[in-house]
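Q: what does this look like with NAP bound?
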Amino acid sequence: MKFKDKVVIITGASSGIGRQLSLQLAAQGAWLCLAARHVERLTALADECEKLGGRAMAVPTDVGQESQCENLINKTVEKFGRIDVLINNAGFGIKGSFEELPDLDLFKSVIDVNYYGAVYCTRFALPYLKQTKGRIVGVSSILGKIGMSGSTAYCSSKFAMAGFFDVLRLELKKHKVSVTMIYPGYVVTEFAERMVKPDRTLQGQEGRKFYTKSMMTAKRCAHIIIKATARRKRQLIMTSYGVIGVWLNLLAPRFLDWILPFISRMNKERIGGGRI
Ligand SMILES: NC(=O)c1ccc[n+]([C@@H]2O[C@H](COP(=O)([O-])OP(=O)(O)OC[C@H]3O[C@@H](n4cnc5c(N)ncnc54)[C@H](OP(=O)(O)O)[C@@H]3O)[C@@H](O)[C@H]2O)c1
């Protein structure tokens, strides 16, 4: 019950990992500010959170827009009076190689949402987080540690998050504000369905086939994130494959470069024959 009566902002709360974070924190009695673009989903989630024993407010927000992030922070402070935790979780990916992109608009929008969204929210929340000696969380990805072909924009955004938050952690040490970076592997959410193709259509059902029953559930992922946040962990690489990948990247980068195309191909084949 570490988060009882703590004011927590969760971006990307409307589905997947963010939704599970909201429900589990509500069950601990947290006061939640839920942010994403889908208003109906957010309001329904706020009701569910209240029934679980938390307090919750939905603030429709596109984190790619600086003014909307400022509004999110202002609304939270107006309603709850302070901020204890900011979880930067909103994000999406695009599918296709760099050369397949007709222009850079889609590429830039990934950076705007995944990277600048986190930077904007952190910037506006920082004065309040310093007052409470609060916690900042960045939900990155194992692709924020290791490059994978077909993910230039996504990897760039997640690597940038790591750079930003690793420096911020050092700068905020004197204020006792912790920064926890999370690097999940594959998690069963709507993420793959919502991946945008170079022609700007969504992967949809094709993406859904990507998931297998052995992948981590959003519920488990959220549970691990909450534990790491409570302990003010520096970073958390979620799966053993992730840990092995990070070590290989340091000790045998050429071997990793050699093996990654095989993993990438396996993933593509799975899209044609997934089980969920
Ligand atoms: N699933 C995985 O395998 C996996 C692996 C590693 C890391 N991650 C990371 O985990 C985080 C959560 O993803 P997920 O797996 O839970 O996917 P998801 O189910 O698709 O959820 C993504 C969330 O981000 C929100 N979002 C997207 N664009 C937004 C914007 N412009 N402004 C505000 N909110 C926005 C979505 O809400 P709206 O559409 O309502 O705005 C949604 O709530 C992401 O940062 C992702 O990169 C996921």
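The beta strands are 7-11, 31-36, 55-60, 85-88, 135-139, 178-183, 187-188, 216-217, 235-237. Residues 38 and 190 are 13 Å apart (CA to CA).
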